[in-house]
Design a protein that fits this description.
The complex is a heterodimer of chains A (345) and B (493).
Chain A lengths: L11 E3 H15 L3 E5 L25 H5 L4 E3 L4 H13 L3 E6 L9 H7 L3 H4 L9 E6 L14 H5 L5 E3 L4 H13 L4 E6 L6 E3 L13 E5 L3 E5 L3 H13 L5 E5 L2 E3 L3 H11 L2 E5 L7 H12 L9 E4 L9 H7 L3 H11 L4
Parallel strand pairs in A: 2-3, 2-4, 4-5, 5-7, 6-7, 10-11, 10-13, 13-14
Antiparallel strand pairs in A: 1-8, 6-12, 9-11
Helix pairs in contact in A: 1-7, 3-4, 8-12, 9-10
Chain B lengths: L2 E6 L9 E7 L6 E2 L4 E6 L4 E5 L4 E6 L6 E3 L3 E7 L4 H13 L18 E2 L25 H9 L18 H10 L28 H10 L17 H10 L6 H5 L20 H16 L2 E9 L1 H13 L7 H14 L6 E3 L4 E3 L5 E3 L1 E3 L2 E3 L2 E2 L7 H16 L13 E5 L18 E5 L3 E7 L2 E15 L5 H16 L7
Parallel strand pairs in B: 13-17, 17-18
Antiparallel strand pairs in B: 1-8, 2-4, 2-7, 3-6, 4-5, 6-8, 10-20, 11-12, 13-16, 14-15, 18-20, 19-20
Helix pairs in contact in B: 2-3, 4-5, 9-10, 9-11
Classes of the chains: A alpha/beta (345), B alpha+beta (493).
């Protein structure tokens, strides 16, 4: 549990600051940690821009000047090279943190991810390990159109050998990032663009959050809401609104979709008998569908209402702002789903 | 009157239930601003400072250093403006009297990563064998397990952990409670009453088939009993509720051709599951009809002499009341003695010939036809047959037949004469190899010795299993039977 974040006497930091701090502290602590990606240090070859840049979203800002170009490597615009180099470096004993500017670009390096990095340990009979982190921005809401707005965690969660992390707040982001770097397997670390500026108390010291342990953001026995990434604050807002009516929900943030803390979800549903899964990804073969299936398979007799999934429709992310807003699960849709599972309340 | 405001024990983190006062930052009479430090509080994990939510003057400190105050407990009172001691006393009493909801720690801006409990669930159990032990705040446990353990006054230190990452799981709590003989209380999922209508909320535990049928029939699941597995509403429950509300499936009716007149009453179809007895009958006759090659031999018998015999017997004996059917049974038993191949049982492999005639008679009951068996009918007199048959029929109708009184027949009789039926064919009562179908005895013109006369004719139809009985066997038996019925004296031989 994220108890350390519970006390308020830690400084308030944004998700962006928390991740940047985690990278700084871990590079300081562990000399084998390297960073590579497009413009992670500065615009390639542009003088004077080193300090200013640090990736388009500024997550790696300050790392280049601090640790030098030997450990913070600007790469060509070739995702297959970034991930391939990172996977090879990981096999030789380094702990690379590779950045994909947008997770939408994962297609061009997918072979390196799913057929190489994810399988090295298995193919070499456990004699090789691939301790790499693939950081990527994800999600809609930034008016960035279909090719820069996807939520692809279901695609990655499907692949054995990969771990998939989706922090929903700054405290979790730091603890999960440190765990991701120290983990001996390839980890996909998906950062939702809408969350970068959200903040909460984050300890200055180093701490890790284990993978596969869900956080209960709210507690209540009337219904269970499972939400991931940027959907977590929306689910919390709905739970808080319903709480004023005397309806109390468990809000569960799995934090990692692989491994998934299905135990926590099943235990909660066993008590509440009602499940709403909120996920920004497209609905088919998704994590929302997966969680529904796990609950239907293992807790069917506990269910008092059909499971409701609140997801994006089965379309690419629209560019028109009104359509994009309608595409993402809204608080209104989540609230309606909870009221539905409560029997029309 | 002054505006009074409380300073309450806050809740820092989900495990915090109480705090110990460590040091006051204020004294009575001090002026404070909103956010000013009031008192340091020590919990199992941290020391932190409680601040005032209101500006004003501290007018009362309600606890002493070292006191352990539960979350939500009153620590101090702040007044805006002047307040009399009486006012403050009344205010403190009202707060302590009222069950103050525990204060919820204000969320930091944006998302708080920490679980913040909105309504702490009360401890609902008294201490048990699992309650002892040091603070379990640091024992790894799943959120639900921790919640349920706390509510049941169970210390997590006493629970062997087998959950994910060595956590105590809900299952572990359950197992430990069961091992210690403690009945675990789980929060009851609440019912949220949906408006009553044909569309049920999902809150009823029903099988998918039952749910679909209920929707089809417009039956509300709340009107159904739940006799299915695991207390679910089953299809039968929905059907029972539908029947009691006179609701019937409408699928067929709606797709039918337009009725001749708009007012034409619709066909009401009641759907029901077969009872166990009916299912047995259905299975047995289907099997007999499909497996056994039946053939029939028919004959009309003049039972005038048998009727006279019956009349004579009944007139001379007050203790018996012989029926024509009783005489028929006796005659069959006698005829079977000379046709052993008819008095047999055949299972498709082996033939079982019997020296005694065990004759089953079809008896109509509320649960369908039964075939009680009269053992060794040939050894019984007509009076004995009559009494035995009345007893068997009565017990068949009340469901009190013994197991060996059914299914052991070597021959069977089905008599529909009482309904005025002329003749019919019966299905063999396996594994017996033949059954006699008996029609009504009626006055009919007959020709005797070239003269037209009025006879009392009864139609007999013998269905036989051709695998072991040939036409000549059946014909010989029926001829013997006819002879005995027409000349009852032959039965004495």
């Amino acid at each position: 549990m994220s108890d350390a974040g519970a006390s308020t006497n830690h400084p308030i930091k944004t998700v962006r600051e928390a991740i940047n701090e985690a990278l700084h502290q871990e590079m300081e602590r562990d000399p084998t940690v390297i960073i590579l990606g497009e413009e992670v240090a500065g615009g390639a070859g542009c003088k004077g821009s080193d300090e200013a840049y640090g990736g388009v979203f500024g997550l790696t800002k300050g790392l280049g000047p601090r640790f030098g170009r030997g450990r913070v490597i600007d790469t060509p615009i070739t995702e297959s090279a970034i991930i391939g180099a990172a996977a090879g470096a990981a096999n030789t004993g380094l702990r690379p943190v590779a950045e994909l500017m947008f997770v939408d670009f994962i297609g061009v390096c997918f072979d390196q991810i799913f057929n190489q990095a994810a399988k090295f340990r298995y193919m070499f009979g456990g004699k090789a390990k691939t301790p790499m982190v693939i950081r990527a921005t994800a999600g809609a809401g930034l008016r960035a159109a279909a090719q820069h707005s996807s939520m692809l965690h279901p695609v990655l969660t499907h692949i054995p050998g990969l771990k998939v992390v989706m922090p929903s707040n700054a405290y979790d982001a730091k603890g999960l990032m440190l765990q991701a770097i120290r983990d001996d397997d390839p980890v996909c670390f998906l950062e939702h663009k809408l969350l970068y500026e959200t903040s909460c108390p984050v300890p200055d010291e180093l701490y890790t959050i284990p993978f596969g342990e869900a956080a209960f953001c709210r507690e209540g026995s009337d219904a269970t809401i499972v939400a991931m990434g940027a959907m977590v604050p929306r689910a919390i807002a709905v739970a808080d609104k319903l709480a004023k009516e005397g309806i109390h929900c468990d809000v569960i943030d799995p934090r990692t979709t692989s491994p998934l803390d299905s135990e926590a979800i099943l235990e909660s549903v066993e008590i509440s008998g009602r499940l709403v899964v909120v996920d920004e990804a497209n609905p088919r073969c998704s994590v929302a569908a997966d969680i529904s299936s796990i609950v239907a398979e293992h807790a069917f007799s506990s269910l008092r209402a059909p499971i409701k999934c609140v997801t994006a429709p089965h379309t690419p992310v629209p560019f028109a702002p009104i359509l994009e807003d309608a595409y993402m699960p809204s608080e209104e849709r989540i609230e309606q789903a909870v009221r539905d599972v409560l029997g029309g309340r | 009157m002054a505006n009074l405001a409380p300073v309450l024990m806050p809740k820092w983190g989900m495990e915090m239930t109480e705090g110990e006062l460590a040091e006051w930052h204020v004294a009575v009479g001090d002026s404070v601003t909103a956010g000013a430090d009031i008192v340091d509080v020590e919990t199992a994990k941290i020391v932190n400072t409680v601040t005032s939510n209101h500006a004003g003057q501290v007018v009362r400190l309600c606890a002493a250093i070292g006191d352990v105050i539960p979350v939500g407990g009153l620590l101090a009172v702040v007044a805006e403006g002047s307040a009399s001691d009486a006012d403050i006393d009344a205010y403190v009493t009202s707060l302590r009297g009222a069950d103050i909801a525990p204060a919820v720690e204000a969320q930091p801006e944006a998302i708080a990563p920490s679980p913040s409990k909105i309504t702490p669930e009360p401890v609902i159990a008294s201490p048990t064998g699992l309650s002892e032990g040091p603070s379990d705040a640091d024992v790894p446990a799943s959120s639900v397990a921790r919640r349920i353990a706390a509510q049941n006054h169970i210390n997590l230190n006493n629970i062997p952990a087998t959950g994910r990452h060595g956590r105590v799981s809900l299952e572990d709590v359950r197992a430990a409670a069961a091992g210690a003989g403690i009945a675990l209380t789980l929060p009851q999922a609440r019912d949220f009453d949906a408006p009553r209508g044909a569309e049920d909320s999902g809150r009823f535990n029903a099988t998918p088939v039952a749910r679909r049928l209920a929707q089809q029939l417009g039956v509300n699941l709340s009107d159904c009993k739940n006799t299915g597995r695991h207390g679910r509403i089953s299809k039968a429950d929905v059907e029972a509720a539908a029947a009691s509300q006179n609701k019937f499936p409408v699928g067929a009716a709606t797709t039918a051709v337009a009725p001749l007149t708009p007012e034409a009453p619709s066909d009401h179809v009641a759907i029901e599951n077969l009872s166990g007895a009916r299912k047995t009958i259905a299975r047995v006759v289907s099997q007999a009809k499909s497996e056994v090659p039946h053939f029939r031999v028919n004959v009309d018998v003049d039972v005038s002499a048998a009727m006279r015999l019956r009349e004579t017997l009944n007139n001379h004996r007050s203790d018996i009341k012989v029926s024509l059917n009783d005489i028929l049974i006796k005659a069959c038993a006698m005829a079977l003695a000379s046709s052993p191949i008819i008095n047999a049982r055949f299972d498709g492999e082996t033939l079982e010939r019997h020296s005694q005639a065990h004759i089953a008679s079809a008896v109509a009951t509320d649960n369908g036809v039964l075939m009680p068996v009269l053992r060794n009918a040939g050894a019984l007199g007509l009076g004995e047959i009559s009494n035995a048959m009345r007893d068997l029929a009565t017990r068949a109708k009340t469901g009190r037949l013994a197991l060996d009184e059914m299914g052991t027949a070597t021959f069977s009789i089905s008599n529909l004469g009482m309904f005025g039926i002329d003749s019919f064919d019966a299905i063999i009562n396996q594994p017996a190899v033949a059954i006699l179908a008996v029609g009504a005895a009626k006055q009919q013109p007959v020709v005797r010795n070239g003269e037209l006369a009025i006879g009392m004719l009864m139609s007999l139809s013998l269905s036989s299993d051709h695998r072991v009985v040939d036409g000549a066997d059946a014909a010989r038996f029926l001829a013997d039977l006819k002879g005995m019925l027409e000349e009852p004296a032959l039965m004495l031989g």
